Amino acid sequence: MILIGATTENPSFEVISALLSRTKVYMLKPLTEDEVFGLLQRALPVLKVEAANDLLRQIAIFANGDARTAYNILELAAAASKEGRVTAEAIEDSMQRKMLLYDKAGEEHYNLISALHKSVRSSDVDASLYWLGRMLESGEDRLYIARRLVRMAIEDIGLADPRALEQCIAAQQAVHFLGIPEGDLALGQATIYLAAAPKSDASYQALNKVMEAVENHRAEPVPFHLRNAPTGFMKSWGYGTGYQHAHQFDDALPDMDCLPESLVGTRFYEPTNRGLEQRIAERLEAIRARKKGTGE
User: Fold this and answer.
1) Are residue 88 and residue 131 in the same domain, yes or no?
2) Average pLDDT value for the chain
């Protein structure tokens, strides 16, 4: 006799160790959206109805990996439809919720995330929350949203408010830890923070300028005064000669140049006067003035 048991609980905690030691344990994972979609397609001939693929996709998204839920929705919608054609209205009634136009791999997916990103960039808190809500209600992967919020923090806020990145990483961790629906609150909180934060893409533009310089200039050798000299030979060759240790100077500000010779004086990072970057800009100007005075 072969005995097969199933449980929705973790067997490590809910099944006695004596039984576990004498059984083979398999972990069943939720079905993917494509797998549920395939099951729904196979069910259509059995129910003797037709349904558009985008409607089946919406059922698959809502089912969240549960084939039984998907089958129940399709069966109820088929019973409520006329002329053997499942309608969006019948599916909405079966779900008991409004069905939103959405396709995780299609245009609407990118339209909504674009709307969310541009609303955050424009500091429109209410619009940002609305587009976030549309994505949540449509079944978007929460970690995908979290990743995009992290990108907004570093691309559109940057050093104008460095805590924005901290908030988004914390939100990502909360989503991963809590799941749905509690984790959605963390996404909402992070979205509000990003939309209300001062905006700057100065660090983003600075890196772009650096990458352009790296691509368009020859790769000059590292200046000798910036090289380590762990051996006597390297010291005799001039490695480390002229290096000024910052902590041996007032305010830790040596006057040596650290860029390659052809790029000395180049400014890649131009901070804005918004948020914390205003203080950063003042600090950089003070550093440059001090070094210039020291050099003279």
Assistant:
1) no
2) 87
